[in-house]
Amino acid sequence: MNLDFMSLKTTSAAAVRGERHKEKILERQKAQELEQAMLSERELNPYWKDGGTGLPPEKDEAASVKKVTVVEDAGLSWLRKSYQRMKEQAEREKRNFEEIVAERYGSMEAFQSRLAEAEKVASRKENNYSSGRWKKTDYSESEREKKEQHVKKETRDEGDRN
Per the similarity annotation, which family is this (predicted)? Predict the structure, then answer.
């Protein structure tokens, strides 16, 4: 009898699972290294730089969701957006806000007057829509009678033709 079978290596299921887990981890690391190698130092998208996902952070998404503005608001939404952009530019360039407004609109007073005028026009339009001015008017009794007579006359004319 030979005792060669005792010299064979034996492995347990846990050991096999551990080896597979190590292999998967190594494969993931290789895939990440390949991604990093593909990303160039000259990458233009700032969200890809430094191992990013390519998408902006979630906090910016919440800030970008704002109230939907009404069309024909006399430029009010445009002026408000312009105001916001000027504030951002002043912070970014560390300049005085009033200087930036003066460059674009001549003076702070000119911008404020435009903004006030647009707000006034937009509120007037909003009041017109909400007051029901644009709703279909209800016909008075005399107008209904005229319409009914007109319909009767048309039906009589059609009867004459036949």
Answer: Belongs to the CWF19 family.
Give the type of residue at 7.
S
The tally of domains found in the chain comes to: 1
Residue 82's Cβ-count burial label (10 Å; 0-12, 13-18, 19+) is: middle
Q: How distant is the alpha carbon of residue 29 from its chain centre?
A: 35
DSSP one-letter string for 74-130: TTHHHHHHHHHHHHHHHHHHT--HHHHHHHHHSSHHHHHHHHHHHHHHHHHHHHHHH
Ramachandran region, residue 104 (left: φ > 0; alpha: ψ -120 to 50; beta: rest): alpha
Domain that includes residue 118, residue range: 76-130
Nearest CA among 67, 70, 74, 73 for reference residue 84: 67
pTM of the prediction? 0.37
Each residue's pLDDT expressed in tens, for the chain with a length of 162 residues: 566 666 667 778 888 899 999 999 999 999 988 777 666 666 777 777 766 777 887 775 555 555 555 556 778 888 899 999 999 999 999 999 899 999 988 888 998 999 898 888 888 776 665 555 555 555 566 676 777 777 776 666 665 565
- Please check whether residue 4 lies inside any domain of the structure: no
